[in-house]
Design a protein that fits this description.
The complex is a heterodimer of chains A (379) and B (659). Chain A is mostly helical and 379 residues long. Chain A has one domain. Helices cover 67% and strands 4% of the residues of chain A. In chain A, the strands form two sheets. Chain A has a three-stranded antiparallel sheet. Chain A has a two-stranded antiparallel ribbon with strand order 1-2. Chain B is an alpha+beta fold. Chain B folds into two domains: 191 residues, Penicillin-binding protein 2a (Domain 2), CATH 3.90.1310.10; 277 residues, Beta-lactamase. Chain B is 37% helix and 18% strand. Chain B starts with 16 loop residues before the first helix and ends in a 16-residue tail after the last helix. The relative contact order of chain B is 0.10. Classes of the chains: A mainly alpha (379), B alpha+beta (659). Chains A and B meet through strand 2, helix 7, helix 10, helix 12 and helix 13 of A and helix 1, helix 2 and strand 1 of B.
Chain lengths: 379, 659
């Protein structure tokens, strides 16, 4: 028996696909989300209606999407990659010119009360596009300059559009995702060495541009860099978030102050406590043990993604799963490094935990793709 | 499906098995590498978390403990302002106040009601407190009452246990010990307003402290950046009722820089007292370096009233006073300079070569031009008049004549060269530019052609010419030295001397200047000099000067017909302004002085005596020595000087002991 490009001896069909889903991954994702609901419930002072309720609704909607996507064969999604990529680029163009502005950046389109952030979408469509590209490309050509240039352009287009919003954090993540998929696909190390040198040079140029007429970043972004280097220099201004976040995390101690006992978050000392800084609430209320458990959950999600990817002989699926896992990892690593004071404050939510519809839906859609790849793997 | 197909299970038919396997192996290898990097990152995050919540937990727990730790700004002490000899002109005094923190107070209304029993609180205080509470975060302390006595403060401290969230505090507030003497120079400070904040791009966090005071006008405003200093921060731990238990960390800010002015507080005080109740302005300037020794506008007001929040009655009183105490007449007030302008007209004519120092003009008492008669102040005329006589006897016709020869453009140019009609940059508010009119100016301002009559009026400092007392002092200093002296008010900031550049030459030949000076000398010392009665008798301190009397209005034909021409018969606000400019000692000029007495009548009677006293005060160490006055005047001067309400050595006003 064979379908499309693969010889297979068995493909689950119909409802039997349920048995072949990657259930541990679903359980883990649900568990992490549930931790998020608890945190949101606590931050709201024991109220469901402020954030937690809505977050659960979004999760439910996302879960349905995830299952639907999981049931559709992965090759359909592969064939959809180019369309999805083009649509997300168009949407980015739409926000660029017609989007609503939040925090000084154009980031979302309002669709019937739901705020769609095309930059979130682009993270997944970019992975799909690059995975499909390398699936199609003759392996021998992977490292040839022309064939390397194409994925570079595919990555650059959404990155530049997001940077123009301006949303530095997401642009960086897009760049890293693009690089990761290319690395996994087998592009020669030399290219990466070259890019790393170039990036180093660019960082130097950006820092050197400060205060000149051709300043490359916004003043607020430079100040964030300063604050990162020395948050205590401005304890009531730019450094306030970082200092308060560290106080919250540190004061949790081994076992935390207990559920709903976090004072930092509940007395409004923490800004953005329900979105980007939600991890600090967990640290404060559940302590080192709680935080470590969460890290383990995150680690397990990544591990199961890896296992699923390694079992998969389809090049598209392999690259897609690893790309999404890398995306997921970048989210959480940057967010955690940020709240722990190891990285500058950039607007990156914590996956499955931070309050916010777009990010949650996109993540669940991405995990739906992982499930589809898992169910329909050639065997 | 056959058994042999098993070899191809999952095989991509587009690629050879070898290729598929190789590419998969490469991807797997790199994926594992990436997995290793992820694991390392997880380890870093875990270690950081361990550092924060285990190693450093105690410190952070302390910091977060019920959020009782807060960071507060310590307002820096504002820089002091001294006079040239180090006498304090603006200082800081301790100010006792009571603050309340909503979060710690619990039932705010009950606590405030209790507080009202202990110390006097007005309904206004309570109202304002309630309003501020709605605006600020619950943990921000709000000032309930300000400027309490030590007794009231002690009472609050004693009753502390029953007043949760309330704490007594000591702060600094601005005090101007020589109140009225420096109101116009220093200005005053006041609480930051929304307007102040909007004017700044990146406001200092200090400005967000409730009731923080910044300079509003005068030196306080224009040297705000130097005077303010930098905020310190302190992390404090407070207990359950909001009392500060201890300070965890304190980083002192930098106090503002001390500023030393060029003004001599004692001379300033003398001149202020000497001007008395007149609506007047006087400027004494050191001609060698431009230092303003005293710059007085009268009447004055008490800037301390503004610091404490001026009452409506006081404010309306100041606003309705027709002598305009709030206006700084020295730099802001502009007046027709009258005859004090004649030196400029003469200089313009001499410089242009249309006359020489010996040119003589016949004065029949008037000059006819275009069917109109321009009168000399002396109806009978002065006869033949040369430069020196024209100055000493202030003949108008001489200037009508020479002004026509030289033209307005050269006169205006000369005026600007001597500091008239240009803005002198000083750290003071509302510095006026004055007007030095010429053809282009009239075209632009009035859209009319310049007429010869305008030149004739301008030649004796009437018409469109307007100057401030500061500009007149600068003009006099420049005539006295022949150098383009620039006035300055700040001597040193934070102990660092402000350098004075050697003033460049004004570019007029010394011969010409000497002639002008000797004319000004004759004004005071010649037999028929207009200011002869205000001369200095001391040979070493001889003074030169020029009187001026400027009309506030045109005398109408009807008035002339009725014969109402004497100043005394007019209402005060229609009388002439009295002006005088001068310098001393004549032989070796040290100080220039300008005096304007609004509606004071004649310059020789109202302004010149004040100028002489001011310059003698600046030249001597204490009160002007009687020996410097002509012997016939000594008794009168002596009793006048004794009556002056001068401050004592500590700057206390003479009536403060009675108050």
């Amino acid at each position: 028996m064979s379908f499309l490009e693969y010889r297979v001896k068995f493909v689950p069909t119909g409802l039997r696909k349920v048995l072949h889903l990657n259930w541990p991954l679903i359980v883990l994702v649900t568990a992490v989300s549930a931790v998020g609901w608890l945190a949101l419930y606590s931050i709201a002072g024991g109220r469901m209606d402020v954030w937690a309720g809505r977050q659960m609704q979004v999760f439910a909607l996302g879960a349905v999407l995830m299952f639907i996507i999981a049931f559709v064969p992965i090759w359909f999604w592969r064939n959809m990659s180019l369309i999805a990529y083009v649509v997300s680029i168009l949407l980015l163009l739409v926000v660029e010119f017609f989007g609503a502005t939040g925090m000084g950046a154009q980031r979302w389109i309002d669709i019937g009360g739901f705020r769609l952030q095309p930059s979130e979408m682009a993270k997944v469509t970019l992975v799909m596009m690059l995975a499909a590209y390398y699936d199609w490309l003759d392996v021998k050509k992977t490292s040839r300059i022309f064939w390397v240039l194409i994925p570079v352009i595919l990555t650059s287009v959404p990155t530049v559009l997001v940077l123009m919003q301006p949303n530095l954090g997401t642009a960086l993540i897009l760049l890293m995702i693009g690089g990761t998929v290319m690395l996994l696909a087998g592009v020669s190390w030399w290219y990466f060495a070259g890019v790393i040198t170039a990036v180093g040079g660019t960082i130097w140029a950006v820092m050197a541009s400060r205060g000149t007429d051709w300043q490359l970043l916004h003043d607020y972004q430079f100040r964030r860099i300063d604050t990162f280097l020395d948050p205590t220099s401005d304890p009531l201004g730019a450094g306030y978030n970082i200092i308060q976040a560290q106080i919250a995390l540190g004061s949790g101690g081994w076992g935390g102050k207990g559920f709903m006992q976090g004072t930092q978050s509940r007395l409004n000392f923490l800004p953005e406590k329900h979105t980007d800084f939600i991890f600090t609430t967990l640290g404060e209320e559940f302590g080192f043990v709680g935080v470590l458990s969460l890290l383990v959950l995150y680690g397990l999600i990544l591990l199961f993604c890896y296992v699923s990817a390694m079992q998969n002989k389809d090049r598209f699926s392999l690259l897609l799963i690893l790309g999404i896992a890398a995306n997921f990892f970048f989210y959480l690593a940057i967010n955690l490094a940020m709240v722990m004071g190891l990285a500058p404050v950039v607007g990156i939510p914590l996956p499955f935990l931070s309050y916010g519809g777009s990010a949650m839906l996109v993540l669940l859609v991405a995990f739906g793709l992982i499930q589809s790849a898992h169910v329909h793997r050639p065997r | 499906m056959t058994v042999t197909d098993a070899v191809y299970e999952g095989q991509d038919v587009r690629r050879s098995p070898k290729e598929t396997e190789e590419s998969a192996r490469l991807t797997h290898r790199r994926a594992l590498l990436m997995g290793g990097a992820m694991t390392a990152m997880f380890a870093v995050l875990g270690a950081r978390m361990h550092y924060l919540s285990v190693d450093q937990a105690d410190q952070f727990k302390l910091l977060a403990e019920e959020n009782r730790i807060s960071i507060r700004l310590i307002p820096p002490a504002r820089g002091l302002i001294h006079d040239r000899n180090g006498k304090v002109l603006a200082g800081n005094e301790q100010n006792y106040r009571v603050v309340i923190t909503r979060e710690d107070a619990g039932d705010v209304d009950a606590v405030l009601a209790k507080l009202a029993h202990i110390i006097p609180l007005t309904a206004d205080d309570l109202d304002r407190t309630a309003k501020e509470m709605n605006r600020t975060s619950p943990f921000a302390p709000i000032t309930v009452a300000d400027r309490l006595s030590w007794e009231d403060l002690s009472k609050v401290a004693l009753n502390a246990p029953s007043l949760p969230g309330v704490s007594p505090e000591v702060g600094l507030s601005r005090l101007y010990p020589r109140d009225t003497d420096f109101a116009h120079v220093l200005g005053y400070v006041g609480p930051v307003s929304d307007n102040d904040l909007e004017a700044l791009d990146t406001p200092d966090p200090l400005l967000t402290i409730p009731k923080f005071q910044i300079g509003k006008i005068g030196v306080e405003r224009w040297l705000e950046d130097q005077l303010r200093g930098k905020a310190g921060t302190r992390r404090i731990e407070v207990n359950a009722v909001g009392r500060v238990m201890r300070e965890l960390e304190r980083e002192e800010g930098d106090p503002g820089s001390d500023v030393r002015l060029t003004i001599d507080a004692d001379v300033q005080n003398f001149v202020q007292a000497r001007l008395g109740d007149e609506s007047a302005a006087a400027v004494v300037m050191d001609v060698t370096n431009g230092d303003l020794i005293s710059i007085v506008s009268s009447p004055s007001f008490d800037p301390n009233l503004f610091v404490r929040g001026i009452s409506h009655t006081d404010y309306n009183g100041l606003m309705e006073n027709d002598h305009r105490p709030l206006a700084n007449k020295t730099v802001q007030g502009v007046y027709p300079p009258g005859s004090t302008f004649k030196m400029i007209t003469a200089l313009a004519a001499l410089e242009a070569g249309v006359i020489t120092v010996n040119t003589s003009v016949r004065c029949p008492g008037y000059l006819e031009f275009g069917g109109r008669r321009f009168h000399c102040w002396k109806r009978a005329g002065h006869g033949a008049v040369d430069l020196e006589k024209s100055l000493s006897e202030s003949c108008d016709v001489y200037y009508y004549d020479i002004a026509q020869r030289v033209g307005i453009e050269k006169i205006a140019e000369m005026g600007k060269r001597f500091g008239l009609g240009i803005r002198h940059e000083l750290p003071m508010s509302a510095i006026a530019e004055g007007i030095m009119p010429n053809r282009a100016w009239k075209r632009e301002r009035h859209n009319e052609d310049w007429r010869i009559g305008d030149t004739i009026n301008a030649s004796i400092g009437q018409g469109y010419v307007l100057t401030s007392p500061l500009q007149l002092a600068v003009m006099t200093a420049r005539i006295a030295t022949g150098r383009a002296v620039v006035p300055r008010l700040v001597r040193s900031v934070d102990g660092k001397e402000v350098p004075v550049a050697e003033a460049p030459s004004i570019g007029i030949s010394e011969d010409v200047l000497r002639k002008i000076r000797s004319g000004m000398y004759a004004v005071m010392n010649a037999e028929r000099g207009t200011a002869k009665s205000s001369r200095i008798a001391d040979e070493a301190l001889l003074m030169a000067g020029k009187t001026g009397t400027s009309q506030v209005r045109n005398i109408t034909a009807a008035e002339r017909a009725r014969g109402v021409i004497s100043n005394e018969q007019l209402p005060w606000n229609r009388r002439d302004h009295a002006l005088f400019v001068g310098y001393a000692p004549y032989a070796n000029p040290r100080y220039a002085v300008s005096v304007v007495v609004e509606h004071g009548g004649g310059g020789s009677t109202a302004a010149a005596p004040i100028a002489r006293d001011a310059i003698l005060r600046a030249l001597s160490d204490g009160l002007p020595p009687l020996s410097a006055y002509p012997s016939s005047q000594r008794n009168r001067i002596d009793s006048m000087l004794k009556k002056l309400p001068l401050r004592d050595a500590d700057g206390r006003a003479p009536d403060s002991s009675r108050a």
